[in-house]
Amino acid sequence: MRALRDPIRLIPLLFLAAILIGTALLSLPIATAGEDAAPLLTALFTATSAVSVTGLIVTDTPTYWSPFGQVVILLLFQIGGFGIMTAATLFGLMAGRSFGLRQRIATQVERSRLETGDTASVLKLVLAITLVVEGLVALILTLQFAFSYGMPPGEALWHGVFHSVSAFNNAGFSSFSDSVMSYQSDPVILGPIMLSIILGALGFPVFQDFRARRMDWRRWSLHTKMTVTATLGLLVAGFAAMLAMEWDNPATLGPMSLGSKILNAAFHSVMPRTAGFNSLDVGSFEQETLMANYFLMFIGGGSAGTAGGIKVTTFAVLFAIVLSEILGRRDAGMFGRRFGHAVERQALAITALAGALVFGATTYIASITTLPLEEVLFECISAFATVGMSTGITADLPPSAQLVIIALMFIGRVGTITVATALALGRRERPYRFAEENPIVG
């Protein structure tokens, strides 16, 4: 079973296995609120969206799925967010198994951490952070639902836990039909969800760096500096763009007070980091707002976290390359460090492949539907970047288009991991180099 020993094949296979198991469970009659079982395509779409921590849905989660079905969905996006390889390795460590080098590499690649280190220590940190953040956010949300909105304790606990797990895993699933639009003026609901999403999107290597080097900026690794800086920059840019573009929109921020405008602009600057919740009607966004979201969704969050997209470090490397060319510098880099050519080529390859995939999917869906191109493009980027935000067209897509979205969600979750692994492990040095000759560029 070579595939089970090869991280390039093992990671997609494990995610695929989780999707198939989830599809089977969601296809059971007990999984739906009605008497009939869910159609296979509906179950497959929902399971893929959950395992890939995307959040796109073709049915209303709280009304279509039974309590059993909703628990299955919660477990699927918890598994998908935590990482199939991380969970499998952690169970193996607890059982006292001794893993070989390739299995250790596979585990580290799922967290995009190929440096040497204590795998067991890293996995314990992942588990600790997951439990602590999800537990605290669940407690805050549960208390707010119970005391401020009069929910019965059991119902408040369910909604609190569901949204906490969904937020930290950047899944975007909600146990409310309108996501969190009913709480758009409540900072005690939106605030913890935002913070949980940001923490999940930073990536566990950043937390490992925080633990090892405390909060001393000078001792942080280049990866951590780039991730934190790019994340803050994109959050501020997204907030400013959202506030400026939607300020007078009567269907979104227009009727709100100043405080609510600031709160919801901040909330929707975080959501394109692959979270998928919405406190505003995304379908009512201005055209320029949708375009800004294309950019933010495509970039996504930090490497080795629960976010998707091409990753903020990939974007930062590309930005540094462009800047170095403009300034006529020989090397591209940041914070007093230069990038290796292998990293630059990986960033270019991942971005080019992602762009081609989104372009091809958008072209196909636009050719078989009469939906507006900007909405189709938004849906495809959201699926690939595992964001889950939608203008409301997901359920209206024909079956073939839904299958394309399913493929985008799966590739978006495991594709960047697989490509990065293949590029990192598949390098072959030739014993010779061809003669250099440069074509005309530009």
Automatic annotation (TrEMBL):
The chain crosses the membrane at residues 71-95, 122-147, 188-207, 228-247, 294-327, 347-368, 403-425. It comes from the Bacteria. Keywords: Cell membrane, Ion transport, Membrane, Transmembrane, Transmembrane helix, Transport. The keyword S-adenosyl-L-methionine does not apply. The keyword NADP does not apply. It is found in: Cell membrane. It comes from Parerythrobacter lacustris. It is a multi-pass membrane protein. This is TrkH family potassium uptake protein. Its main location: membrane.
